[in-house]
Each structure stands twice: as C-alpha cells, then as structure tokens.
Design a protein that fits this description.
The structure is a homodimer. Chain A has about 240 residues and is an alpha+beta fold. Chain A contains five helices and ten strands.
C-alpha cells in the first residue's frame, strides 16, 4: 500500500457537492467509482475539504492509499478515461504516508468570480455570479483590507453542519481585481469556515452595490453573529483554486 | 406591423444548432416560442445566418415583424424571463422595414477559441477546443495572412447543404492572438461558406501542430477542392461574435 496525491479540477454544476450524500451524486463518489473501475478495489478518496453544490474546483487535492503497479503518471490518463468530462485529474504523485490532503494543507486559495453587466452572457452563466451594475471596487477593496489577517469569522460563516473548535481563521492574502467586466476575488487562508468565502463575497457585493458601508465590516466581524446583513453569494462564482502544502 | 432588431447570445451546447429541424431543439425555435408566449401570435424569427450544433453566439442578430405596443427595450426583459438561461436577448431596437438580419449584414465576425494544455479544465470544456500541446502561433499567423483577403474558399468549406452561387468570399480582417493558454482566432468577412470558419481553424491547428506547412495554404486555396488535409475543428470553440451592419 502506498499513498498517492492527485490534483483534481471539476465543474460543480451537475453535482450535489463534494461530499457523498444519500440520493444525490457527489464528486467524491464519482472519483471513488473511477478508482474502483480502475483497480477493482474499494478505495476511499480523502479530499482537502468539501465544496458545496454548484461550486467548482481548479485545484482540489485528494489522497488515496492503493497498490498501484505502474508509475503514478499513468493513472492520470487511466482515471480520466473513466471520469465524466466535468471532472479531470490534472496530476498525480506518490507521497509519503504522512501526507494527508486535509491535515497537511498549509493554506487554501479560493477565487470568486463576479460578472458585471446588464445581461448575463450565456456561456459565462455557470461560472460567474451576475450583478447587473458596475460595483464600487474601491469600497470592496477597503472592506477586504479589514477582513485580511486573523479574526473570528463567526459572522461570516453559515451555521456549520459540524461543530468547529474555533471560528478564528487567518486570511493570509486577500486581493480583488477587475478584468474587463469580471471582478476576481482571491482569498488564501489557513482554513475557511462553512460558507465563509461565499459570505465574504456576499458582503463585498453589498458594499460594492452601495447597500452597505465598508467601514461596517469591522463591527460585523466584532459581533461574531451571522445576520441577514451578510448574504451568502451564489455558488457558481466560486472556485477552490489551489491547496498549498 | 413594425420591424424590430434583437441581439441574441446563446450557449449552443444543448441545441441542434440555429435552424429549426425535425425532432431536435433549435435555437430559432426556442426564440419563436418565446415570442409566441409573449405576444400570443406566431412570429417568424429571421437570423443573420445559421450556426451549427454546439456553436455559440455572443452577438447573433435577428429581426421580427410584430405589433409591439410598448417601447422595444421592455421586450428585452419580457423575452428573457420566457427564455432558458442559455439564450439571452441582449438588446432590441425598432428598425426600418428595409432592414434584414441576413441581407443587410455588411460583415460578420467569428471567434474561435483554442485551449492549449495537457488536460482540459472542466469549466472551459464547452467553450474551447482542446489541443494537448502548445501550438506554433507564428506559423499559424503566416497561414492566416495567406487566407486574408478575397479568395475562392471552396477548399475550406464542407459540402454545402444548399447551393451557393459562388464560393468566393472576402475576409476583411483575420487576427490570431494568445492570451494565457488560449489562442483566439478572429475572422471578419463579408460572408462565410458552410463550416468555413471551423475548416480554417482546423487547418490552422494542423499548421500549429507542425502537421502541415503554412506555405501549403496557398496551394490548398488554389485547388478549390476540399480534402482530408483540411479537418473541421470542433464546434465548441466557435462563437458568432458580432454582425456588422
């Protein structure tokens, strides 16, 4: 038995999310089926973390324990022919048994894509969140600067479906840039609470629309209570971009 | 009765193409149904031209004759609520009765998107053509320069399903640029033969892969015969970008 690490990209549109659930198709399950098809064995896929229904990944990382007889790179192709086109293995490497996709992660990077236009272009609709008018990106930048660093992010998390020891997290790097009609929010942190990225995106969109003041970001953080002031932005704009080890 | 011009964008993935066909869902048909839902009348939608199955549009133009009682702009919203999310009306204007979406077009602009990477990213798979290795864009540029201008493009057209008077067309502007891992081919011409853009893209990809020499472009043009040397590139990379009047 050896441990292997795979980088996986997926289009989350058709899935109920990462984690296996009854009566719905999850990405983890489709991957496990592909490993089973390939090896004839039941192989448990460990992800770096969950993604919600409709959320995408450009660089999810998983690990599996398996007896592979050929060089790992051969498994990239062998798995991809067994996977639907909306899930792709990008790379594979044998790793030390101490490596763990979730526990070994030093930081995770998410990107949130916002498309600013009166009408949404059809070919972007599954991969952007649509806002009808140009946002005030300067105000959003200022709100973001308040969120960067170590804080109790309870006010920016949905009721978690599992207990967490602490709601304190560190955002190492937070950037926001405009590219044509897109706004790209990038967050790299040591961990994210349930729906934390979408809550931050939802708050920033409100600030950018002029419906909230960037300076209120601090008092919302301090409140440590999630209220309707912080909406959860739509899943389709969100990509798990990269996991850093 | 007045004439109205609409600009339409669509994701062609789910459709059998623009034109109404038996036992398949066409974009023209979905638009006609939306007009019928809105007005209660049977309204014929005239497009600037057809697009094939799986081909997208960022700026298809149509005209209709109808008795609209409110300002045209109100129809944008009213039609979009009746259309699936993969078809969007972008704008509407009343036009002179002499305007015709196809006959009045001075030129049409198509863009063809090629994604160069070992493995295709899932969220791009429906809107890019995938090539596994970096292409020689310099050779492609040189082939493209030969195709620019007025030529008999018979060798770059699939067997047309309708008779055409002439296979001579003018490409006013042909550009090719790289953006990250994308290659974007842009062609603006006074008209395009059946599958002409995809044939040009297919040939350029062959040249870019080193499977054909750019200098052979001239002899293929001169032959006026379509052969296997010119493959038809995949539909998903193609967008009808803009129609100029």
């Amino acid at each position: 038995m050896s441990r292997f690490r795979f980088t996986v990209a997926y289009d989350g549109t058709a899935y109920a999310g990462w984690q296996i659930q009854p009566r719905q198709v999850a990405i983890q399950q489709v991957l496990q089926k592909a490993f089973c098809d390939l090896t004839g064995e039941s192989i448990k896929v460990h992800g770096s973390g969950r993604t919600d229904a409709g959320v995408h990944a450009a660089g999810q990382v998983i690990h599996v324990d398996a007896c592979f007889s050929v060089p790992p790179v051969a498994y990239v192709r062998a798995l991809n022919v067994r996977l639907p086109r909306d899930i792709r293995i990008l790379s594979c490497a044998q790793v030390d048994d101490s490596f763990h996709a979730r526990k070994s992660a030093l930081s995770k990077e998410y990107r949130y894509f916002i498309y600013q236009a009166d009408i949404m272009l059809p070919h972007l609709r599954l991969y952007r969140t649509h806002v009808h008018k140009k946002l005030d990106t300067e105000a959003m930048q200022q709100a973001l600067a308040i969120l960067e660093g170590t804080h109790d992010f309870a006010a920016f998390s949905a009721n978690p479906d599992r207990e967490v020891e602490t709601t304190i997290r560190t955002i190492f790097e937070a950037t926001l840039r405009e590219e044509g009609q897109d706004i790209i929010l990038s967050l790299r942190g040591n961990g994210f609470l349930y729906k934390m990225v979408r809550s931050i995106a939802g708050w920033l969109i409100r600030v950018g629309q002029g419906d909230a003041k960037f300076a209120d970001t601090q008092s919302i953080l301090d409140s440590r209570v999630r209220t309707a002031k912080v909406p959860t932005a739509a899943p389709e704009g969100l990509f798990l971009w990269k996991v850093h080890y």
